[in-house]
Design goal:
By secondary structure, the protein is an alpha/beta fold. 50% of the residues lie in helices and 19% in strands. It has a five-stranded parallel sheet, with helices on both faces. A five-stranded mixed sheet has the order 7-9-10-12-11. A two-stranded antiparallel sheet has the order 6-8. The longest helix is centred in the middle third of the chain and has 58 residues, at 112-169.
Length: 380
Amino acid sequence: MGEAAAPETVVVIDDDYAMRLSCCKILSKMGFGVEAFEDGTRGLEGVGRLKPGLIVVDLKMPGISGMEVISRVHEIDPQITIVVITGYATIDTAVEAMKCGAYDFLPKPFSPDELRLIVNRGLERRRLSLESQRCEVERAMLKRRFVTFVSHQLRTPLVAIHQYLDVLKHLGDTAEVAAKREEWIDRCLKRTDELQSLIADWLTLARVEGGTLTKERIKVDLKQLLPGILKTYEAMAAGEGVSLHAALSEAPLCVSGDWNCLTVLFDNLITNGIKYNRPGGKVTVSGWPAEGEVVVTVGDTGVGIPEQYRPFLFDEFFRIKDEGAKKTTGTGLGLHISKKIVAEMAGSLDFESQPGTGSTFRVRVPAWHEADVAKTGSSE
């Protein structure tokens, strides 16, 4: 079992002993770690040492005033939430405290419930602020990783294509050169296919992050969609020595979604089933209705997914690196995009896998209801 999270720390700064004692008792019973200080100087030293989530500070104190404490606390950590209290409450002092950076204002005398409410509200605001800040940092890091990834993934095939073409430009016209030219042109075409695949995935990812991935919602029968997708991958599967099979229910498998996005979803799952399979293996696509949902599974008889990689399988840019698996091409975005598509359809995507035996990915999405027409304004 993991360690329990440490209790949030609250600092009380007030020159009134009875007020400090009362606040400490109330806040301690709420489960917080509490320390109290009788003046601003000691209080600021405590804030620097304890790094509390919230401080309760009296505006009227000898020495350093509450207003100055507010200003200097934010120099220590601008994310600390500050609640000011005073027995000389006026609208002017409240406004001034807010301008200095206080979160809220509590006039004396106040009840225990009033203090509990304002402290809980202030710490919740701090939690949301920190969470938002973390998201911004993660987004910035992702952008940096993305730029690095794009630069590398685009540069590698472009450099190879440029080298091939540069050499071809200076070759003669002998029979041997003609054969070499044919081989290198084929290599260039393969590299351009990789670039097209990369760009297609990046554009889809941009739609994912922009929230426009499944903007269109129409009635889609997966019994029509899935056989067509399998047909397009027959040549690829045959080249890998893999057979494709469909086991779809006799009943309609209608869902509310975007035809193109559903195609991307099952393209990704089926191509993975082919790429990570073994010669003589098979990929089976099954589908059936189940209690207001449509369930589709894509199972393969391939190498399986090593347990240490499973938690990261749907992360962007993640690729399995395993000596037992054959080398495959791709961007590492396919499953991340698939997960996003299913999530936007209010469904789920999970998997089961046995190393050396194969993997099965399971898609569950809400079945189509005629009421969906009124919601989307679209029809079949």
